[in-house]
Design a protein that fits this description.
alpha/beta, UDP N-Acetylglucosamine Acyltransferase, domain 1, 2 domains, 4-stranded parallel sheet, 9 helices, about 10% strand, globular
Length: about 290
């Protein structure tokens, strides 16, 4: 109907104007000939592939056999390398804002992806420790395979350790997409910048929040509705929030943080401490050391 077409044309024009105004205000009014940001869908697919590469007989295709395991891993490594190079190139283009040509950026992306993929064997060994920590830390767990394929805390730490690699490589957008994929699936919100030691276990997990500058030691266990957050945010002379300052807790080795605990600010929870919350009021935890 003519009226419907007129409405569609009007909405399209107004949305075009809104996009133009946003890009102009943000200094981003460029000649956008193609997609300029990494794709959620492509990154999600790449992460699923990485999980299958890391645990082919548990997180890979249902028809995979032991005899074809190495063949599957090699084939999928080639596929995921190509996809990740494309997505990393997009993020580098965005961050570079036209300073380098596409060939140089793609070469840089290829090198970054190769270095990230070369870390997969060490990552697998680290994740094995996380899986064992979950199995030994939960009396309801019947076997390590159950933990790997069904526990939200394990899914969250797998994604975090992958995301953290991208974060450390200077690729915060892809890292955040991976982190939010796990957050949406598990209810566990771990910023990709958080530093987490060996044999980490989040039990139950719903409502757990771990901030960007949090540092967690080895063999730490966290239960549901725990927050490792910031208590204040510094501002610069323009009034904008200061980025990257240490503002989240340090949790040392062998700490257990039970359900509902809220730990705010750059305080240190000393080795071996157990933190509890009675559920009727918020407890304030004082620093053990500075």
């Amino acid at each position: 109907m003519p009226s419907d077409k007129h409405l569609i044309d009007t909405i399209t024009a107004e949305l075009r104007a809104a996009r133009h105004n946003w890009r102009e205000r943000q200094g981003r009014e460029l000649d956008l000939g193609s997609r300029e940001l990494p794709s959620h869908q492509a990154v999600h697919q790449a992460v699923d592939t990485l999980c299958a590469i890391l645990f082919p007989m548990r997180l890979g295709p249902p028809d995979l056999t032991k005899e074809r395991e190495d063949q599957f891993v090699a084939y999928m490594l080639g596929n995921v390398e190509r996809e990740l190079v494309s997505q990393v190139t997009l993020e580098l283009q965005y961050l570079d804002r036209g300073q380098q040509d596409l060939v140089a950026l793609r070469t840089q992306a290829s090198g970054q992806v190769s270095r990230l993929l070369a870390q997969l064997p060490a990552l697998r060994r680290q994740l094995d420790e996380d899986v064992l920590a979950a199995y030994h830390g939960d009396p309801a767990a019947t076997c390590v395979d159950e933990v790997l394929i069904s526990y939200p805390g394990v899914e969250a730490i797998i994604h975090h350790r992958i995301a953290h690699g991208f974060y450390r490589a200077g690729l915060p957008m892809i890292a955040r997409i991976i982190a939010e994929k796990a957050h949406s699936a598990t209810g566990i919100d771990i910023h990709p910048g958080a530093t987490i030691g060996r044999a980490f276990f989040v039990d139950h997990g719903t409502g757990v929040v771990v901030g960007e500058t949090a540092i967690i030691g080895d063999r730490v266990r966290i239960y549901q509705n725990v927050t490792l957050g910031a208590v204040r945010f510094n501002k610069d002379e323009t009034g904008a929030l200061t980025k990257g300052e240490p503002r989240h807790p340090i949790v040392e080795d062998d700490v257990v943080v039970y359900a509902g605990a809220t730990i705010l600010g750059r305080i240190t929870i000393g080795r071996g401490r157990q933190l509890r919350c009675d559920g009727s009021r918020r407890r304030h935890f004082v620093p053990v050391s500075n």
